[in-house]
């Protein structure tokens, strides 16, 4: 399929661990740590894939992706407002394996074109949706992520995990090899319930960045899954 999908679906803990400098309210998420320390903690936890938020609403920039790529050798997802061929090329150059394509920000007629361009560059399209109307008809080469928050309000609202669960049958009907639940997953036990319900993977930023130990978060997730 793709290195990104193979890595996350084959992982003991299918959690894409996110590097994000600030949350939606602008609050610092590094807590005095360097990016290198955060990435080291993700590596020690066994993260199979890492997401890097380069979007400026969350304090990111392109250099952050370059830095993370120099620190860890797992497939990277770039999270930004990506709409153009130039941004796709830059993502590849900076070390991304997958790129966020936010369906709500791309006209329905444009999304398939950007998906094809990403694939032609060897990038896995990580298509993020909040409703059934945003789902591509054929997502056999894409990750489909349901965002439990809403980027239109800069993710300042609370997470609605029920929305993703309700959308899951329609998401799977697109043929995606990897359905992801993204945003607002605060505890490993909540994450385990989402995977038990049929999501192939999770995208977790704030919950992991605020945890005292990403490795302990991963271990609790694995324990919650075997206990189920
Ligand atoms: O979702 C978007 O469209 C987006 C665009 C540009 C930069 C970031 C974007 N989203 C960020 C996220 O969705 C979250 O950081 C991610 O899902 C993790 O959420 P959380 O675990 O709640 O920190």
* Helix coverage percent: 25-40%
CATH topology: TIM Barrel
Report the sheet-strand fraction: 15-25%
Number of domains: 1
The CATH H-level superfamily is: Aldolase class I
Can you list the ligands bound to this structure? the ligand O=C(O)c1ccccc1NCC(=O)[C@H](O)[C@H](O)COP(=O)(O)O
What CATH architecture would you give? Answer: Alpha-Beta Barrel
Secondary-structure-based class equals alpha/beta
- Helix count, DSSP H or I runs of 4 or more residues: 9
Task: Give the CATH level 1 class.
Answer: Alpha Beta
Instruction: Please write the string of helix (H) and strand (E) elements.
Output: HEHEHEHEHEEHEHEHH
Number of strands: 8
| Coarse shape | globular
How much is the radius of gyration in Å?
16 Å
Main-sheet strand order equals 1-2-3-4-5-6-7-8
- Report the average pLDDT across residues: 96
Contiguous runs where pLDDT drops below 50 for at least 5 residues = none
Largest sheet: 8 strands, parallel, barrel
Protein name: indole-3-glycerol-phosphate synthase
GO molecular function: indole-3-glycerol-phosphate synthase activity; phosphoribosylanthranilate isomerase activity
Keywords: Amino-acid biosynthesis, Aromatic amino acid biosynthesis, Decarboxylase, Lyase, Tryptophan biosynthesis
Domain Indole-3-glycerol phosphate synthase: 4-215
Report on the structure:
The chain has 228 residues and is of the alpha/beta class. It has one domain (3-227): Alpha-Beta Barrel (TIM Barrel), CATH 3.20.20.70. Helices cover 39% and strands 17% of the residues. An eight-stranded parallel beta barrel has the order 1-2-3-4-5-6-7-8, surrounded by seven helices. Helix 2 runs parallel beside helix 9 and helix 7 crosses helix 9. It is globular. The two termini are 29 Å apart. The ligand O=C(O)c1ccccc1NCC(=O)[C@H](O)[C@H](O)COP(=O)(O)O binds at residues 18, 20, 53, 55, 58, 79-81, 100, 102, 128, 147, 151, 155, 182-185, 203-207. It is an enzyme of class 4 (lyase). Pathway: Amino-acid biosynthesis; L-tryptophan biosynthesis; L-tryptophan from chorismate: step 4/5.
């Amino acid at each position: 399929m793709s290195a990104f999908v193979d890595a996350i679906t084959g992982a003991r803990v299918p959690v894409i661990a996110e590097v994000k400098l600030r949350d939606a309210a602008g609050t610092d998420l590094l807590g005095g740590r360097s990016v290198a320390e955060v990435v080291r903690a993700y590596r020690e936890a066994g993260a199979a894939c890492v997401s890097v938020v380069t979007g400026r609403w969350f304090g990111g920039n392109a250099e952050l992706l370059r830095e993370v790529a120099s620190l860890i050798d797992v497939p990277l997802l770039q999270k930004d407002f990506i709409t153009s061929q130039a941004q796709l090329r830059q993502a590849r150059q900076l070390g991304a394996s997958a790129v966020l394509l936010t369906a709500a920000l791309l006209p329905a007629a444009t999304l398939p074109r950007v998906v094809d361009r990403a694939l032609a560059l060897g990038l896995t399209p990580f298509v993020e949706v909040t409703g059934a109307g945003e789902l591509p008809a054929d997502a056999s080469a894409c990750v489909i992520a349901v965002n439990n928050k809403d980027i239109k309000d800069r993710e300042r609202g609370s997470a609605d995990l029920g929305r993703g669960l309700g959308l899951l049958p329609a998401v799977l009907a697109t043929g995606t090899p990897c359905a992801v639940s993204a945003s607002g997953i605060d505890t490993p036990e909540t994450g385990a319930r989402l995977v038990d319900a049929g999501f192939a993977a999770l995208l977790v930023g704030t919950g992991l960045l605020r945890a005292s130990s990403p490795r302990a978060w991963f271990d609790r997730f694995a324990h919650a899954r075997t206990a189920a």
